[in-house]
Design brief:
The protein has 382 residues and is of the alpha/beta class. The protein folds into three domains: 2-104, Orthogonal Bundle (N-utilizing Substance Protein B Homolog, Chain A), CATH 1.10.940; 105-131 and 192-382, 3-Layer(aba) Sandwich (Rossmann fold), CATH 3.40.50.150; 134-189, 2-Layer Sandwich (Alpha-Beta Plaits), CATH 3.30.70. The protein has 16 helices and twelve strands. Strand 5 (207-210), helix 12 (217-225) and strand 6 (229-234) form a beta-alpha-beta unit. Helix 1 packs across helix 3, helix 2 (16-26) crosses helix 3 (34-49) and helix 4 packs antiparallel against helix 5. The longest helix has 17 residues, at 302-318. The radius of gyration is 23 Å and the shape is globular.
């Protein structure tokens, strides 16, 4: 039941642009209210998903009107859905001409991605509408990739080894079904996100700062990779508790503080860091398939607004980086305003900052695809 509910919610949100266009085209006098609109969006997804018979989806939507206290909307809901089924071919033809309906992204978002990636924009938008891949990170302190792959096979589960300690499950499952998750043998983490710890060039004994650490996936990966002195920061105490829980599950140890990383005077003890991970807040446009409401909640000015905060944070963290140390700037965004533009602005005011090649000459921008979400990485040294 939970799985079906999650599919309905996420599927409806992913296809919101299409569903909204259908409703607008058919509801000539408007929709009674937002609750009825939400019901129609869900019903349209149910019909188009193929998981439900068309007549069942219509019947259940009509019955649901009573459950949400909208008895008077039954006739309207029934009529709109049956009209859609009856005129589906012509509606499909019209939707194909509507870029928002076709790509299921807001127009300003489409423009931003198309301008940034003239050759890949359709691929990027398409990836944002798909089910996300399920990446695993084997805890090298408790298992090996070979041993864990054998364990998966014994459980009739299959995964591909991609790189380092990264695996990709052939079929996503609930976390509670992932073998060894509870005792810390493995973590669920996007394969793209796992690059952060590798790019930091970690060695035992370093003093490391994870500046925006919650929920702790990258911090845990750092501690699995090398015996470092780690400080993990997050401004939200509830999210800091999640970091503690992840540390305990994986058997790793680090200091955790509730603090705003952009205000070093509130948390810094004066000792510089050899490595800093600055996984800064952003539009999350590279992971929108995991949070499909984001693309409809964000506004055109948000990339620039986030960029201003990212630049301030980068400047604050630069103060606590040791000479010769390395800072990895990370976002889960595909918008250049939050990525290359921020690095350009920072370089213009910090002449001592030098940008390094990523290991393996990897590109800074990792676009979302079948194996990974979208991320941006920039490695700086002082």
């Amino acid at each position: 039941m939970r799985g079906a509910t999650m599919d309905m919610v996420y599927g409806t949100l992913r296809r919101f642009g299409r569903g909204d266009a259908i409703i607008t085209a058919l509801a000539h006098r408007g929709v009674p209210d937002d609750r009825v609109r939400a019901l129609l969006l869900s019903a349209l997804y149910a019909i188009e998903s193929g998981a439900y018979a068309e007549h069942v989806a219509v019947d259940q939507a009509v019955k649901a009107c009573s459950l949400i206290g909208k008895h008077a909307a039954k006739r309207f809901v029934n009529g709109l859905l049956r009209t859609f089924l009856r005129e589906r071919a012509s509606i499909e033809s019209d939707l194909a001409k509507d870029l928002v309906a076709r790509t299921m992204h807001p127009d300003w978002w489409i423009d931003g991605v198309r301008n940034a990636y003239p050759n890949e924009w359709q691929q990027v938008l398409s990836a944002g509408n798909k089910h996300p891949p399920m990446g695993l990170r084997v805890n090298r302190r408790r298992s090996s990739v070979a041993d864990y792959l054998e364990r998966l096979e014994r459980e009739s589960m299959h995964a591909r080894w991609l790189e380092d300690f990264s695996l990709l499950l052939d079929a996503p499952v609930g976390v509670d079904r992932v073998p060894g998750f509870g005792n810390g043998e493995v973590s669920v983490q996007d394969v793209g996100a796992q690059r952060a710890a590798r790019y930091l060039d970690l060695t035992d004994g370093q003093r490391v700062l994870d500046a925006c650490a919650a929920p702790g996936g990258k911090a845990c990966h750092i501690l699995e990779t090398a015996a470092v002195d780690l400080l993990a920061l997050d401004s939200n105490p509830i999210r800091c508790e999640r970091i503690r829980q992840n540390f305990a599950r994986l058997g790793v140890t680090g200091e955790i503080k509730v603090a705003d990383c952009a205000l070093p005077e509130d948390w810094w003890d004066g000792r510089s860091f050899d490595r800093i991970l600055a996984d800064v807040p952003c539009t999350a446009s590279g992971i929108v398939r995991r949070h499909p409401d984001i693309k409809w909640l964000r506004r055109p000015g948000d990339p620039a607004r986030f960029a201003a905060g990212q630049l301030r944070t980068l400047g604050a963290l630069w103060r606590v980086l040791a000479p010769g140390g390395k800072l990895l700037y990370v976002t889960c965004s595909v918008f250049p305003e939050e990525n290359a533009a921020v690095l350009d602005a920072f370089a213009a005011s910090h002449g001592e900052a030098r940008r390094l090649e990523l290991p393996g000459n990897a590109p800074a921008q990792l676009l979302p695809g079948d194996d990974n979400d979208g991320f941006y990485f920039a490695l700086l040294t002082k």
